[in-house]
Amino acid sequence: MIGALWTGISGLAAQQKALDNESHNIANVNTIGYKASRISFADQMYQDRIGKGAKILDAEKLYVQGNLKGTGVDYDMALSGHGFFAVTNKSSTGTSETYYTRAGNFRMGDNGTLQDAAGNEVQGWAMSTITSDDRLSTNPNINVFTSAYTELLTSKIVTLSQSVETYTAKATNYEQTAKADVSDVYSGYGLKNEASKVNDVKALVSNYSDALSAYQDNPDGTSQSAQAQISQVNFIGTDLTKEGDQIYVYIDGKKYSQNYISEPSRTADDGTTVLTDVEASQIATYKALADQISKITGFVAYTVTDEDISRGGTTETGSAVNSFESFDTFTKSTKDADVLHGMIQIQSMIPGQEFKITEVAEVSGDTIVYGSFNETTSATTAQEGIGLGGLQSARDALAMAISGNQRDVFTLQELNLNNADTYSFDFSVYDKDLEKTINFGSAISVSATDDIDDIITNLTTNATGSTNISVENFNKYFTAKNINGNLVIEAKEYDVEFSSELYANAQTYTATGSAGSYTFDDTAAVLANGQTSFTMTIPSITLSDGTVLSAITTTGGTISSPRDLDTLAGKINDIFSKNTATNASGTTVSMPYNAVVVNGELIIQQTSGAPSGNFPSTLTINKVAGGIDKNADASGRKGAGAEFLEIKTTLDQTSSQDSLQLRLDTLGISDSAFGEFSVDASGLITMKQDGAEFAIGQVAIALFNNERGLDPMGNNLLAKTTQSGEPTYNINNDRTATIESATLELSTADLSESLVNLMVFQRAFEANAKSITTSDQLLTTLIGLKR
């Protein structure tokens, strides 16, 4: 009887636990991601083949797929298949524990990370930190996308075998910043108008997008940089002699021609050679055709010379190159003697794009004289880009067209080189590799016979036996060019910005002449452009009556215009009138001289009635050092003058899991934090902002060998145990559950089934209770019999 009582009690206890479990299922019938559990009963030990009741072996979770319900909430996620989200409850002390859940009702936390409803941070493959290698900016001061970058060039996500990359490129408004090159400076040297610069950019945007699509299709394939085609043509020049004559070239089957431009004879830019009117006209015509070709979308042309000519080679005949050889080396040049050779270099701005030149000729009446085009190895053939190398070549060409190398131009008028003078250049350039600004300068001595080439030599070469760090710095960052007689300082890289300042150093000019009249022979030298003031030195003067006028050195004040000689003369006369003394008779006398401008020259002479023989033995004007402005119209960017920025983001799926940051400003992508959140079936998180889509993280899905071994912790969380084993993760979540976005997995608790189970467990409980009361009654009867 006692055994029956204990057997009934064990049954009551087992059924009570079953009722508790079923009540728990009913309570969580609306809990997101909840997995219903069931009780596993077992009979207890036997004695004489009679069992001693029931016990609970396990209250096991049943990891069956729950129904999915669309919510329309971007951050909601549901797992369809096996696996769990991993979340971490990071504390302020830096410690953390990782748990697992099927509840995907996520949100963005205060710190920008993806979190569950309890504030635990969702784990996955986080975006790698963006480094300088992942970013290409033509403005060293900008490394994130700002509101100024209004032009989305392309944005694509590339999935590699073990990583995911995003390539996004934007630009500032290049149509607004593009301006035509100044023809007086750049004719024959890649001259572009505003429309051609904009059209070049659009063609290169298409090329860049195509290269990115090709890389996207086969990201793990071979890589090869693209190469732009560079070809040369030449004209003989024998029949380009008069109005009505013409030169032309066929490019890709289309004829581009230039009529003879009539120019008068003139002194060549070497300062000594006299060009005939035919030679001057040929030079103008060759440059004009190069300029016309440069207007073709995706092309640029230069007048060039073969270095064999400059070396005095004998293989060239006539006024132009008559043949091309494989050893030819070509140099861009706008100098008269070089242009007269009749050679034009045609380049494709689109790397890998091939073009065909089929005919080169000059026409005079019915006579056609054919020139030639370079078909030797000294021409550069187009090479198609493949994979990442092709993408980088396309990107660099696009960035070059959008921004272009910075160029500072000083024209002959600014430099005023016909004077003996000294100049100082000061340069400031940001070195992106050193991540700091480099400042340096260089002093240049210029004689009256010097020209642009002399300045270039001074800037770019060291004197024999000396080392000039300024020259080394200059050659590292810049090139100096003589383009149509203008000094052009150009950055070597298109993503380098610099400032250059040219100063005219202080210079003393001494008047020459005889008593009674002194003349400054080169009055234009008195004040250079940028000059705002001067000083004047006058020695002590003793008049015939013995009155002494003291020596003076005085500042003459501001000159309204650098070459306003009349104003200068007036300022000097003010100095004379203010330098006074009192003679023996008590009369105030001033300097007996007068400054006048005669035929464009500044002359200082004695005034009427001045004693003879007392004119000063020396008279000097000291030019005060002043800045010389670069030419505002010609200076600027070689390309469209806008800014280009490409950012690559990377998700390394071989790295360990971490919290997923969602704010674009924290990630170093944009100065604006938020965008449109989305997640795909593999868990890849993207954020879309202003049309650009960035892959910024990937939710990791954990798999366990024994899901039922996980330990429920409450708050929809499960902990790993020795029974469950360690979680495993697959790259790109391959062979795991798929993720349904804007969807939640409903509870697997079945209310109707649970209600039936409650009745079953209730009857079982009552039956066990009945067995206890029956046993109790029998025991009571037995005790009564004994009494």
Any descriptors?
alpha+beta, single chain, 55 strands, 5 domains, eight-stranded antiparallel beta sheet, 787 residues
Overall number of structural domains = 5
| Biggest beta-sheet profile | 8 strands, antiparallel
Strand runs, count: 55
Separate helix tally:
13
Explain what this protein looks like in three dimensions.
This protein has 13 helices and 55 strands. It is of the alpha+beta class and about 775 residues long. The protein folds into 5 domains: about 1-65 and about 750-785; about 70-170 and about 650-745, no CATH class; about 185-400, no CATH class; about 405-505 and about 635; about 505-625, no CATH class. Helix 1 packs antiparallel against helix 13 (about 750-785). The two termini are about 20 Å apart.
Break the fold down into its secondary structure elements and pairings.
Layout: H1 2-27, E1 37-43, E2 46-47, E3 50-51, E4 54-61, E5 68-70, E6 77-80, E7 84-88, E8 98-101, E9 107-108, E10 114-115, E11 121-126, E12 135-137, E13 151-159, E14 163-171, H2 174-177, H3 183-186, H4 194-217, E15 230-234, E16 246-251, E17 254-259, E18 266-267, E19 274-275, H5 277-294, E20 299-306, H6 307-310, E21 330-332, H7 336-339, E22 343-348, E23 357-364, E24 367-370, E25 372-373, H8 387-402, E26 406-410, H9 412-415, E27 421-431, E28 436-446, H10 452-460, H11 469-477, E29 478-483, E30 486-491, E31 498-504, E32 507-510, E33 512-514, E34 517-520, E35 533-538, E36 541-542, E37 548-549, E38 552-558, H12 565-578, E39 580-582, E40 588-590, E41 593-598, E42 601-606, E43 620-623, E44 626-628, E45 636-637, E46 644-652, E47 658-659, E48 676-679, E49 684-689, E50 692-699, E51 701-702, E52 711-714, E53 717-719, E54 738-741, E55 743-745, H13 751-786
Antiparallel strand pairs: 1-4, 2-3, 5-55, 6-54, 7-8, 7-11, 7-51, 9-10, 11-47, 11-50, 12-46, 13-14, 14-46, 15-22, 15-25, 16-17, 16-23, 18-19, 20-21, 20-22, 23-24, 26-30, 26-45, 27-28, 27-31, 29-30, 31-44, 32-43, 33-34, 34-42, 35-38, 35-43, 36-37, 39-40, 41-42, 48-49, 49-50, 52-53
